[in-house]
Write a structure and sequence with these properties.
alpha/beta; Rossmann fold; 2 domains; 10-stranded mixed β-sheet; 4-stranded parallel β-sheet; globular; binds iron/sulfur cluster; Iron-sulfur cluster-binding protein; DUF362
Length: about 375
């Protein structure tokens, strides 16, 4: 797998999806076995992954089982939760203590780690020593929105690798530049995005959105650029992604990305009920996959931030496998609605594509 490749698997069972993804990435041929391998989930708060805030422990468990089967012995899980949270509490409440016991993997609370003062790109940063000493870092972020930087995924997840005082200082520095510089000091070797349940609006969860997917890549900048498009952000909307590209962390150019989808999205009965974020009454989902419905939720959220909401008397927005082979009027989102008068292809379409489709409808709908 090279740095331009992004692998995507749809579903919600890491035990099934992860081995397929890691085999497709040919990870056994390039993973070093004789170094310390660090797993960095996002445990910003002590809330379960079903809230959209934290990395699903099933994903971390499946990864550790896979690494152990490959002969990797020196594994650690590292995290420093946000300022208002005790990391041990997050480890416990999020199900990581059980994993640590089962596989005899240390849980490292980076809040209590020694730090190093590092100079990079004219910025002095305090960085946790154990994060710097990892031989191979697997970054396991969640696909979710953020109240200040708009989104958080692989690049911002490394903020858990600095002490609390430095987290505070990052805010005074405007977040974007220090996040980009931090990624030159702590290098991610592999990203596995937990996109099973992310969050629509907030990094601490509360408005969960099922996206039912895992995304694997080697370049955290490219992964974040792709995830930004899944959340409906245009290129340039998230400054730290572009800054990280300028500093040589990776590429923010989605034109170079080679997407490889290892399975097809499937209908999920929980897709409509899993989020408290209401959909307009004239969105009609009939056997919709979470992948499609999640994209639509993110697209409508971005449009609502522009002050647009779909008019109640407008023609419906339809999606789902139940619309296959059913030509009709209205707006059809996704390949299943190919017979619609106004149709957006894609299986699933990106939120950015849905935004463009809905922003310029042939008739006034807002
Ligand atoms: S286009 Fe159809 S099959 Fe594809 S993700 Fe959407 S609902 Fe599922």
């Amino acid at each position: 797998m090279d740095r331009h490749e992004l692998l995507i698997a749809y579903g919600d069972d890491p035990d099934v999806l992860l081995p397929r993804l890691l085999a497709a990435a040919d990870l056994p041929s390039w993973l070093p076995r004789d170094v310390r391998i660090g797993l960095k989930p996002n445990l910003v708060v002590a809330r379960p992954s079903s809230t959209g805030a934290t990395t699903d422990p099933r994903l971390v468990r499946a990864l550790i089982a896979w690494l152990r089967a490959l002969g990797c012995r020196d594994l650690v899980i590292l995290e420093g939760s946000w300022l208002g949270e005790a990391t041990p509490r997050a480890f416990r409440e999020c199900g990581y203590e059980e994993i640590a016991r089962e596989f005899d993997v240390p849980l490292i609370d980076l809040k209590h780690d020694a730090t190093e003062t590092c100079l990079a790109h004219d910025l002095h940063l305090e960085v946790c020593r154990q994060a710097r000493q990892i031989g191979f870092l697997i970054n396991l972020p969640v696909l979710k929105a953020h109240c200040q930087t708009r989104m958080t995924c692989a690049l911002k997840n490394l903020k858990g690798c600095i002490p609390d005082a430095e987290k505070r200082r990052f805010h005074t520095l405007g977040l974007h530049r220090p996040i980009a510089v931090l990624n030159t000091l702590v290098r991610t070797d592999l990203v596995i995005v937990d996109g099973i349940v992310g969050d629509l609006t907030f990094e601490e969860g509360g408005t969960p959105v099922r996206m039912d997917r895992l995304i694997v890549g080697r370049d955290p900048v490219l992964v974040d650029a792709y995830v930004a498009s899944l959340m409906g952000f245009a290129p340039g909307d998230i400054p730290y992604i572009d800054l990280a590209a300028e500093l040589g962390v990776g590429s923010n150019d989605l034109a170079v990305a080679r997407l490889r989808q290892i399975n097809e999205p499937a209908v999920a009965p929980h897709a409509l009920t899993a989020s408290p974020a209401p959909l307009p009454a004239n969105v009609i989902a009939d056997q919709a996959c979470s992948a499609c419905l999640g994209s639509l939720r993110f697209a409508l959220q971005r449009l609502s931030e522009e002050g647009r909401s779909w008019a109640p008397d407008a023609e419906p927005i339809c999606l789902g496998q139940g619309f296959r082979g059913r030509p009709r009027s209205g707006f059809g989102v996704g390949a299943c609605t190919a017979g619609f008068a106004h149709h957006l292809p894609g299986c699933p379409p990106l939120a950015t594509e849905i935004i463009e489709f809905l922003r310029h409808p042939p008739t006034k709908r807002w």
